[in-house]
Specification:
Helix content is about 50%, strand content about 10%. The protein is α/β, with parallel strands linked by helices. It has an eight-stranded mixed β-barrel. Strand 5, helix 5 and strand 6 form a beta-alpha-beta unit. The radius of gyration is 25 Å and the shape is elongated. The two termini are about 40 Å apart.
């Protein structure tokens, strides 16, 4: 039975009942269970599932996505694996802040990330809050706030954080809604509107070993795009996830790609570094080591055998992705529908058509030692095919040794660049 992964989503509405955004929540099963030992690990899983399993455009569309986070997540820099556009991290009001954490949040704001002050119910604590002036959103819990203090909470937000939107959480009755709207509260969330929806999807894990190797190697100052492409080649499921990110409108990369290398160029080295951290922290060893090696052999062999040198990167991508239906136990038609692949790559994967499809047929014939098929596809090149296949197996085995013999990892030190307004189009 195919394993599934789950994600909770609860809408946040404005005064006119229009959707402002969704809070994204950790869920461990179809019944909406929330059992976890480490809150930071739950946050990482929410980020990983939203970004790499579903894709942000399918989860939040043109709205905002709010994700619970601890100060340590900001201090670690892990938040940078998510796009700043449309993502708001919720930090509890009572979370402990030291100077280093406060400085990290301030730097993240300069980079364009937004924060919500969460679980607000105590006026003195709000008045002392260091985060309030930097908050784009303040989430108030009317049910836990003394009646006389609620108007003063709203007023304090307006005075200390002008422009911040106020969300009334846990709105469960029409009386709650009427009371909060009368105080000038902007947005509303709670069971009165909707219980959290539980989304389910077939799990598509990447290898922990390959993700850790990518993370370690991405720390090198001299890493370049061909080297990254080679590292991702160790695990077709890793390639699938990076391609899925390119298909996310949250990154503004709404286009088709003609190779894995093209996708890496579009993302840029910094974003791949950020994603490597998230992948390394959230992967599980579920894919067969032999299957991953087969994908690497196919990728290398396809790039050698393709007739047009300009198609080598595309052929590499076709060979690598040709194994993903077996890895994820999912029809290839469904998989390619989630990816921003060029028509030529899709045709090769689905129909074995076009120059890339012909190359993939040749690769599979080599793999299966189908002599009759090899003579039909390359009647004058059997010796060349034998040599190319041997070289590809050797290359894949070297990668295999590198990945499964390495468990290194390190923490990223990242910089921000610009500040972006809180706006969605």
């Amino acid at each position: 039975m195919t394993k599934q992964t789950f994600l909770g989503r609860q809408p946040i509405l404005d005064r006119d009942g229009r959707t402002f955004g969704y809070e994204l929540l950790y869920r461990d099963g179809p019944d909406g269970g929330t059992l976890f030992e480490d809150p930071d690990d739950a946050t990482r899983q929410v980020m990983e599932r939203a970004l790499l399993h579903w894709g942000m455009e399918r989860i939040i569309g043109d709205h905002f996505g709010l994700i619970n986070a601890s100060p340590s997540l900001v201090l670690s820099g892990l938040y940078r694996s998510m796009p700043p556009e449309g993502i708001i991290f919720e930090i509890p009001e009572r979370a402990p802040f030291d100077d280093a954490t406060f400085d990290a949040i301030r730097a993240a704001r300069r980079e364009g990330y937004h924060f919500a002050l969460d679980n607000v119910s105590d006026l003195p604590e709000l008045e002392r809050s260091r985060l309030l002036p930097m908050a784009s959103i303040v989430k108030i819990e009317p049910s836990r706030t003394r009646e006389a203090e609620l108007p003063r909470l709203v007023k304090t937000v307006g005075e200390r954080s002008p422009g911040a939107l106020i969300v009334a959480e846990k709105v469960e009755t029409r009386d709650d809604l009427t009371r909060c709207a009368g105080l000038g509260i902007d947005l509303f969330q709670g069971y009165f509107f909707a219980v959290p929806e539980v989304l389910a999807k077939a799990a598509r894990p990447a290898s922990s070993a390959s993700a850790m190797t990518l993370l370690a190697e991405m720390q090198r100052a001299d890493i370049d795009i061909p080297q990254i492409e080679m590292l991702v080649a160790t695990d077709p499921s890793l390639a699938y996830r990076l391609l899925a990110v390119v298909n996310s409108s949250a990154f503004g990369l709404d286009r088709r790609v003609d190779s894995l290398r093209h996708a890496i160029v579009l993302l840029g080295l910094n974003q791949v570094r950020h994603l490597a951290v998230l992948l390394a922290l959230s992967t599980a060893r579920e894919a067969s080591e032999e299957l991953l090696t087969t994908g690497a052999v196919r990728a290398r062999l396809a790039s050698i055998l393709v007739e047009d040198p300009e198609l080598r990167s595309a052929a590499f991508t076709v060979g690598l992705l040709s194994i993903t239906d077996a890895i994820f136990n999912t029809p290839m038609e469904e998989l390619v529908d989630d990816l921003p692949l060029s028509d030529e790559i899709v045709a090769a994967l689905l129909d074995r058509s076009g120059p890339l499809g012909a190359t993939l047929r040749l690769v599979l014939a080599c793999e299966q030692a189908d002599v009759a098929e090899l003579h039909d596809l390359a009647p004058a090149g059997i010796a060349r095919l034998h040599a190319a296949y041997g070289a590809s197996v050797l290359w894949a085995e070297q990668l295999r040794g590198q990945v499964y013999g390495s468990r290194r990892g390190s923490r990223l030190r990242l910089r921000g660049e610009s500040t972006r307004p809180l706006a969605r189009t």
